[in-house]
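[retry 2/3] DDE superfamily endonuclease: previous attempt timed out, resubmitting with same input.
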Amino acid sequence: MTGASIETTLELWASSLRDVKARMRPLFTQERVANSASQFLDGLLGEERRKTGWMRAEAVGDPGPWRQQAILGRGHWDADALRDIVRDYALET
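[retry 2/3] DDE superfamily endonuclease: success.
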Protein backbone atom coordinates (compact mmCIF):
# COMPACT_ATOMS: atom_id res chain seq x y z
CA MET A 1 0.00 0.00 0.00
CA THR A 2 1.41 3.37 -0.96
CA GLY A 3 0.40 6.73 0.40
CA ALA A 4 0.58 10.20 -1.01
CA SER A 5 4.00 11.77 -1.32
CA ILE A 6 5.09 14.22 1.33
CA GLU A 7 4.86 17.04 -1.19
CA THR A 8 1.29 16.09 -2.07
CA THR A 9 0.33 15.87 1.60
CA LEU A 10 1.89 19.25 2.39
CA GLU A 11 0.11 20.89 -0.54
CA LEU A 12 -3.19 19.37 0.62
CA TRP A 13 -2.63 20.78 4.11
CA ALA A 14 -1.69 24.20 2.72
CA SER A 15 -4.74 24.19 0.47
CA SER A 16 -6.98 23.24 3.39
CA LEU A 17 -5.52 26.03 5.52
CA ARG A 18 -6.13 28.56 2.73
CA ASP A 19 -9.73 27.32 2.51
CA VAL A 20 -10.33 27.77 6.24
CA LYS A 21 -8.77 31.24 6.17
CA ALA A 22 -11.02 32.21 3.24
CA ARG A 23 -14.05 31.07 5.22
CA MET A 24 -12.89 33.11 8.22
CA ARG A 25 -12.30 36.28 6.19
CA PRO A 26 -15.92 37.60 6.30
CA LEU A 27 -15.79 37.67 10.12
CA PHE A 28 -13.43 40.65 9.99
CA THR A 29 -14.56 44.04 8.71
CA GLN A 30 -11.11 45.27 7.69
CA GLU A 31 -8.58 43.58 5.43
CA ARG A 32 -5.66 44.33 7.74
CA VAL A 33 -7.48 42.74 10.67
CA ALA A 34 -8.27 39.67 8.57
CA ASN A 35 -4.59 39.48 7.62
CA SER A 36 -3.58 39.71 11.27
CA ALA A 37 -6.01 36.92 12.12
CA SER A 38 -4.53 34.80 9.35
CA GLN A 39 -1.02 35.45 10.64
CA PHE A 40 -2.18 34.70 14.18
CA LEU A 41 -3.41 31.29 13.01
CA ASP A 42 -0.11 30.69 11.20
CA GLY A 43 1.72 31.50 14.42
CA LEU A 44 -0.36 29.06 16.42
CA LEU A 45 0.38 26.34 13.90
CA GLY A 46 4.09 27.21 13.72
CA GLU A 47 6.98 25.20 15.04
CA GLU A 48 7.80 27.37 18.04
CA ARG A 49 7.29 25.50 21.29
CA ARG A 50 6.34 28.65 23.16
CA LYS A 51 3.92 30.97 21.49
CA THR A 52 4.28 34.38 23.11
CA GLY A 53 2.95 37.52 21.48
CA TRP A 54 6.47 38.75 20.78
CA MET A 55 7.49 35.43 19.19
CA ARG A 56 4.40 35.38 16.98
CA ALA A 57 4.99 39.01 15.99
CA GLU A 58 8.62 38.34 15.07
CA ALA A 59 7.61 35.30 13.03
CA VAL A 60 5.30 37.39 10.82
CA GLY A 61 7.56 40.45 10.67
CA ASP A 62 5.56 42.77 12.93
CA PRO A 63 7.56 45.27 15.03
CA GLY A 64 5.76 44.19 18.19
CA PRO A 65 2.92 42.01 19.48
CA TRP A 66 0.21 44.68 19.26
CA ARG A 67 -1.51 43.42 16.11
CA GLN A 68 -1.52 39.87 17.38
CA GLN A 69 -2.86 40.95 20.77
CA ALA A 70 -5.53 43.15 19.19
CA ILE A 71 -7.11 40.11 17.54
CA LEU A 72 -7.84 38.65 20.96
CA GLY A 73 -8.31 41.74 23.10
CA ARG A 74 -9.75 44.57 21.03
CA GLY A 75 -10.92 42.87 17.89
CA HIS A 76 -14.61 42.67 17.13
CA TRP A 77 -15.53 39.35 15.58
CA ASP A 78 -18.10 36.68 16.24
CA ALA A 79 -16.57 33.81 18.20
CA ASP A 80 -19.70 31.69 17.68
CA ALA A 81 -19.50 32.18 13.92
CA LEU A 82 -15.83 31.19 13.96
CA ARG A 83 -16.71 28.09 15.95
CA ASP A 84 -19.37 27.21 13.38
CA ILE A 85 -16.92 27.67 10.50
CA VAL A 86 -14.36 25.38 12.13
CA ARG A 87 -17.03 22.81 13.05
CA ASP A 88 -18.49 22.78 9.53
CA TYR A 89 -15.03 22.41 8.02
CA ALA A 90 -14.18 19.54 10.38
CA LEU A 91 -17.41 17.74 9.50
CA GLU A 92 -16.69 18.11 5.77
CA THR A 93 -13.23 16.59 5.97
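[retry 2/3] DDE superfamily endonuclease: The two ends are 22 Å apart (CA to CA).
[retry 2/3] clearing retry counter.
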